Amino acid sequence: MGCLLRWTALIWTVNVIPCTIGMAVSERTDGSCPPLSVEEHRFTDVLDRPLDITGFDLTEKFLLRKGTITEDLPSYRLGSSPLIKPTKEIFPNGLSSEYSLVTIFRVRRTTKKDRWYLWQIFDQSGDSQVSVVVDGGKKAVEFFSRGELKNALRYTFKSRDLHALFDRQWHKLGVSVQSNIVSIYLDCKLIERRLTDEKDSVDFRGRTLITTRVEDGRPIDIELRQILIYCDPYMAEMENCCELQEPKSEANQTFNGTAPPPVAAQLPQMLSLPAAKSIDRCHCPAEKADTGEAGLSGDPGHEGELGSEGQKGIDGEKVSTTISSRHIFHT
């Protein structure tokens, strides 16, 4: 009987454990997200376990630029034409249910009070499925998603720390989307976290747009450097703000990965979560300074001590002093 129980336990272990491992791996490597090459200096150096970064560069997807930029990020003046494409062209194999959106932009004087979609996906019927709205009138950022019951889930972030986003300077805005949490980052500082209800899956047969006014669907007049979507909700937290420093860093190496930070302890069940204590997240490589002027000549050195007596040399060959008679005769 004991032998039979041991065999039963062994068979259960062999069959169940691989299935469990397979499910855990497939959740992170479902093939929906392609590799994403980004600059090495974009991230803090607190992690030491490499992991391939995956995601989408919407700056390239909407043809604002093509190829890999090896210099400081250029900026693009938007507002002349609508930026909208079929969602399948932007996310050919779909999008992870947890992700980070990170963008660098600045509003202009004529649009700093406008309400506009930074990013939106809507279905075939034109109904919004997920979006991030920047509201200049309220100085707020909104995250919208359709819930599991097809209800609207809308979360508005109105912290005073977001007011700087509308001062017409360059800023980095990050949105981290997890299964039950949405976090907002501004200039690499956590502003606020909100608990959310379960979100519905996205239908990718519709269309996707960026930088479009909510009121009339016209393109918004802003300056944009980049919009990235990482297939990892922790990447918004790992970003630093070296690109916003003056003078800009010259680092432009390609960075292919970093590990996510440890999962935090279970969050308390409250509607709004306080922001964590801000830390310095920018570890930017120092720029090489100009060569300085030549220094003054130094003082003469002290006279050296008398050296020790050298070794005795080798005896030389003996030279004959006899003069031949023939030499004398001819002389």
Automatic annotation (TrEMBL):
Q: Mention one GO biological process in which this protein takes part, according to its record.
A: cell adhesion
Q: Which UniProt keywords are given for this protein, alphabetically ordered?
A: Cell adhesion, Collagen, Extracellular matrix, Glycoprotein, Hydroxylation, Repeat, Secreted, Signal
- Domain spans labelled Thrombospondin-like N-terminal: 49-233
In which compartments does the protein localize?
Secreted, Extracellular space, Extracellular matrix
Kindly give the InterPro entries that the UniProt entry links to this protein.
Answer: ConA-like_dom_sf, TSPN-like_N
Q: Which residues form the signal peptide?
A: 1-22
> Residues annotated as region Disordered?
288-316
Cellular component (GO) terms are: collagen trimer
Signal as UniProt keyword = yes
Assembly and oligomerization? Homotrimer. Interacts with FBN1, fibronectin and integrins ITGA1/ITGB1 and ITGA2/ITGB1. Integrin ITGA1/ITGB1 binds to a unique site within COL16A1 located close to its C-terminal end between collagenous domains COL1-COL3.
Q: Which family does it belong to?
A: Belongs to the fibril-associated collagens with interrupted helices (FACIT) family.
| Role description | Involved in mediating cell attachment and inducing integrin-mediated cellular reactions, such as cell spreading and alterations in cell morphology.
Name by which UniProt lists this protein: Collagen alpha-1(XVI) chain
Q: What's the source species for this entry?
A: Dissostichus eleginoides
